[in-house]
Amino acid sequence: MSCALSIKNLTCKYDDQTTILKELSLQVEQGEIICLLGASGCGKTTLLKAIAGLLPLSSGSMTLNCMTIDDGEHWMPPEQRNIGMIFQDYALFPHLTVEQNVAFGLRELSATEQKAKVKEMLELVHLEQYGERYPHQLSGGQQQRVAIARSLAYKPDLLLLDEPFSNIDTQVRHELIGEIRKIFKQQGVTAIFVTHSREEAFAFADKMAVMNHGVIEQYGTASELYYQPSSKFVADFLGGGSYLSAKRLSETEFDTELGIIEATAQQPIELDAECELLLRPQHVQISASEESGVKVTEQQFMGDHCRYVINANGHKLFASSAEALDIDQMVSVKVETQGVLAF
Q: Which residues pair with 253 in a beta bridge?
């Protein structure tokens, strides 16, 4: 694959004082869908603006399809970058029909070519029957599909999406995410989208960049980040885990309140040093046992399964079980060591 977007050592400041992005680097390949994932204020939207040319760089460089778009000396205006943007409020023109909205960026084409392209795009997003309607006559999901059709109509080299699913009803969000991902893959679209939802990131992206205070903490596939987080920040942000105090005994063994557990150290940890083990719920298997000193303190119904919280000698741990358990029930604990990480 060839690199579509290359960002090297990018720094952005507001008012030349407040640093928002710090020495950030990112490589995006042709046809990849990349998610910028992080809490509010971490720099996600700022990075989109910088890529689009709406915010100047303090230092660093960016190239798009091997062409420099900003390096401090050479700056390409936004309208020349061939980058599309889709916002969470869709930004459709309320006084134009669906067809007119999609055709808005096609003014250089003849009327016949415009009509053919609009027809093609509406068929692509399954809205061919809605061309004469106005945005207010559509659902949120339909409006977002119109915004995507309009952006794809002029074949941008890169598509930027700022929380594109946040205004969509939960009931249809997952279906829409699947539909749009399929469209992007069919069209070979290179896209970067912003979200604070790990579920959206897992479902939509090929790779994820977890951001924290203007830097990328870790970049990779969803499975890489979930199962091999480079830091506690990444592990905590992707969620679903708990920590158990431990002491390193050997290369792979750690002494804990639950006995000796095998784990992989994600950071340098000296022998006999205090550390913490990251335990996902699937690592902590519990079953009813009146002889145990461990109690179920919470039960979380997850739809197709239950997640439990146990109190193990003062440690609050997420756990799973093959049997139905009640709050305050005493349980035995077995730790499955495959994939346990030490920090």
A: 262
As a whole number of angstroms, the distance between CA 292 and CA 294 comes to: 5
Task: Tell me the pLDDT of the chain (343 aa) as tens digits.
Answer: 577 999 999 999 887 778 899 999 999 999 999 999 988 888 999 999 999 999 888 999 999 999 999 998 889 999 999 999 888 777 899 999 999 999 998 888 899 999 999 999 999 999 999 999 999 999 988 998 999 999 999 889 999 999 888 888 887 888 889 999 999 999 999 999 999 888 899 999 999 999 999 999 999 999 999 889 998 999 988 877 899 999 999 999 999 988 899 999 888 899 999 999 999 888 999 999 888 888 899 988 777 778 899 988 788 899 999 888 899 999 999 988 888 999 9
Q: What are the phi and psi torsion angles at 328 (to 5°)?
A: 75, 0
User: Three-state DSSP class for 277?
Assistant: strand
Q: What is the pTM of this model?
A: 0.86
The CA angle 226-232-238, to the nearest 5 degrees, is 35
Give residue for tokens 């029930």.
329
Beta bridge pairs of residue 319:
308
Dihedral (CA of 131, 136, 142, 144) sign: positive
